[in-house]
Design a protein that fits this description.
4-stranded antiparallel β-sheet
Length: about 50
């Protein structure tokens, strides 16, 4: 599964892609628009790819 994230806030930020290996991680349920905090930065899920 691949997540495309964009930081929340002002400015034109480039999207960030995160690849998740589903064999090593328990099921992860995310939806478009959901907010995720990584390293103190709040990101919004822009796209979920299988």
């Amino acid at each position: 599964m691949s997540l495309i994230l964009k930081p929340i806030g002002r400015g034109k930020w480039r999207p960030m892609s995160i690849e998740i290996d589903e064999r090593r991680v328990p099921p992860l349920f995310v939806t478009v628009g959901q907010r995720i905090t990584i390293g103190g930065v709040v990101f919004r899920v822009h796209e979920v790819r299988p």
